[in-house]
Write a structure and sequence with these properties.
8-stranded mixed β-sheet; 37% helix; Rossmann fold; alpha/beta; 12% strand; two-stranded antiparallel ribbon
Length: 420
Amino acid sequence: MTARRRFLQGAGAALLYPTAAALRGGSGAYASSPANAHVEYGRETLPVGIRSRLIDNDNGANMHILEAGFEEPGRPCVVLLHGFPELAYTWRKQLLPLARAGFHAIAPDMRGYGRTSGTDVKFDDDILPFSLLNHVSDTLGLVRALGFEKVAAVVGHDWGSPMAAWCALVRPDVFRSVVLMSTPFSGAPELALNTANHARRSSGEVDIQQALAALSPPRKHYWWYCAGREANDNLWHAPQGVHDLLRANFHFKSADWKGNKPFPLKSWTASELAKMPRYYVMDLGKGMAETVAAEMPSATQIGACRWLTEAELRVYSTEYQRTGFQGGLQSYRVLIDPLYEGELNAFSGRSIDVPSLFIAGASEWGPYQTPGALQSMRSAACTKFKGAHLVAGAGHWPAEEQPEKVNALLIEFLRGAKGA
């Protein structure tokens, strides 16, 4: 057995994540203490050694961050970008392991989330501040404000994945490697070539929302739900309350929900998309609050969920009860808006040319929800692709469900990318 395999399988794993006793609070690592008194949220559940700050990113946002490994100047920087409905807190199980591996690990609340600017946004406000390129500017401004001209790696999960991908594509001089989690990157938009001299081919695209609505029973895609005017009210004022809404959502999309048995879809058609669980392709007449309520875990299941305890979930629910969800939902409005999609056309033909890695849960649909995306990432979108890892025992939340495995993959990649 090689030294690397011994590291990944044996004693190294113990260094990557707190012990079971620490998770239970037996060591005091997660207990409330003066060392955590200045942390903005999650004081009782964050390991000692993580701190938080508010940073002006010089791009119009005051960004809240969690960080570890800050004590020693000059360490290489790793930035961790969360998705929806998440927070910087999502990376609480990665920050200290990355710091122990020699990095300054930084996890911001993205614009519109948590304690960062933009949570007061309304549906009718301008969505430009929430475009992918402005998220790149937010992230670049943040790391520069913190004194970094280069970033060893930008890591993104869910919505953080395309944000990280565009950081690496637009500024490879700054973001020297990239890890995408759950959502693969299929590449920059393609502008048709030589259409001035040849007849333009029909795209053959169908109105997917209309096609889904025509199914029996009628369905709708969650992108369009999240981009709609009613979504924030449906989530923020869910009949079951925000805490139970989030509990059901996290459970439904995790490996704990036994219905998550993903497989590749053949095409972007209504009949194929409808094979996904209803958190992706919803019943037409239901909001997400009603959709996830049908899969609310039992009290016994909640008590057995060690990867997201009630105390940890309460950090999320307290923040979202305060802010609502519109700041995160703005990204879905950008996703389906052709005006803002057009700004990415300037990068047609560009690829990600820094070392890249993909990680997802083996029990999640993220790699397959856009047919062909993972294949495109492997073959063209990322020219220095180092592999795709489907983590056993994880659904959509691998960093929380299986932190030891994810941390080992991250640290192995970071060490390899440093020498690339």
